[in-house]
Design a protein that fits this description.
By secondary structure, the chain is α/β, with parallel strands linked by helices. It has a single domain (3-334), classed as Alpha-Beta Barrel (TIM Barrel). It is built from 11 helices and 13 strands. The protein has a 9-stranded parallel beta sheet. A two-stranded antiparallel ribbon has the order 4-5. β12, α8 (262-272) and β13 form a beta-alpha-beta unit. α4 packs across α11, α5 (144-160) runs parallel beside α6 (191-204) and α8 (262-272) runs parallel beside α9. It is globular. The termini are far apart.
């Protein structure tokens, strides 16, 4: 049985102690960063070693959004545009959607070639005029309908290549005036404002198989806890108003927006109703602390995980040259 947590790894090779940990703790996922990627051949050996240690295919995650959030970079992997570049390249939304879908399919092919099967994208946050720069060009647009359309295209492109998309950050990070990596953002928008804007892209894509929560306090939803550890936000907003019923995971437990030890944070995420906790640090001590409180994936959580993992068996053909032409065009607009 797999357990309800995802961890990071320390380097470009699977250390013996990490392999031993994967064998007995059996996390349902591993997340990779630039520190884990030396070359395509090396990265494929690493992902193969992870699956071998666990004994079955699990989710291998990465943040490959494009722009400043791209873990796999040139010269081995293609440069990808930031989300905001699609509308810069194409005034016509339909053409921007076509470009986003094609580039996401190209990205999926690159990820699958090195054994990565899950991308933490699309980012569906709708940026407010005074929001913190942590979102910035990572947002597709300031119009929630545009965000929904472009986010859907990216999700479709990824899934067509057998890569699981993880939409983020529910129920919306776009109004935050602080970076949750370092501080706890507090959003004071009314419930009506959130429903009319922030929830819109997530509600439109509620049928997607996986999503990530935000370490953000929404005073209109729960003034006492960030969304990621609030059962009220999880049940009433994410599962309720937004209608998302897929696999729900937290943002990184290591972010300073959360307080307490890593085990305490993990327990709070799970108690709030997320299916999986995400610990990105890569240190074995952190991984062991999370494993000590993470339950076996079973029941509804396991069913959601299996539905998400079913995406990995999809492989639809595509025109590489066409996707590359779109990529060049959007990169020019981003320059």
């Amino acid at each position: 049985m797999l357990s309800a947590f995802t961890i990071g790894l320390s380097g470009t090779e699977l250390a013996p102690e990490e392999a031993a940990f994967l064998r007995y703790a059996r996390p349902c996922g591993v997340i990779l960063f630039a520190r884990n990627a030396g070359s395509p051949d090396q990265l494929r050996r690493l992902t193969d070693a992870v699956h071998a240690a666990v004994g079955e295919e699990i989710l291998i995650l990465i943040d490959q959004e494009g722009g400043r959030v791209q873990r796999l970079t040139p010269p081995y992997w293609r440069a990808l545009p930031p989300a905001a570049a699609y509308c810069k390249a194409h005034v016509d939304l339909e053409k921007a959607v076509q470009a986003a879908r094609a580039i996401a399919r190209l990205t999926a092919a690159e990820l699958r070639a090195v054994g990565i099967n899950t991308n933490c994208a699309p980012l569906l946050d709708v940026p407010a005029a005074d929001c913190h720069g942590v979102i910035g060009s990572r947002a597709y647009a300031a119009d929630p309908q545009y965000v929904a359309r472009l986010g859907a295209a990216v999700a479709e492109g990824l899934m067509a290549g057998g890569v699981l998309p993880v939409m983020k950050h529910l129920p919306g990070h776009g109004r935050a005036v602080a970076d949750s990596h370092f501080d706890l953002p507090v959003v004071t928008a009314t419930r009506e404002q959130l429903e009319a804007c922030d929830f819109v892209p997530f509600r439109a894509l509620a049928a997607l198989p996986a999503a990530m929560t935000a370490h953000v306090v929404f005073t209109a939803l729960d003034a006492n806890a960030p969304a990621s550890i609030s059962r009220q936000v999880t049940q009433e907003a994410i599962r309720g108003a937004i209608g998302f019923q897929g696999l729900l995971m937290s943002d990184d437990l290591g972010m300073r927006a959360l307080s307490g030890g890593v085990a305490e944070r993990a327990a709070a995420v799970l108690a709030a109703g997320s299916d999986v906790v995400l610990a990105c640090n890569g240190g074995l001590a952190e991984s062991e602390s999370v494993a000590a409180v993470a339950p076996v994936l079973e029941g509804v959580g396991l069913a959601r995980y299996e539905r998400a993992r079913a995406v990995l068996r999809q492989q639809q053909p595509f025109e590489v040259s066409e996707a590359e032409a779109y990529l060049a065009e959007v990169l020019r607009a981003a320059a």
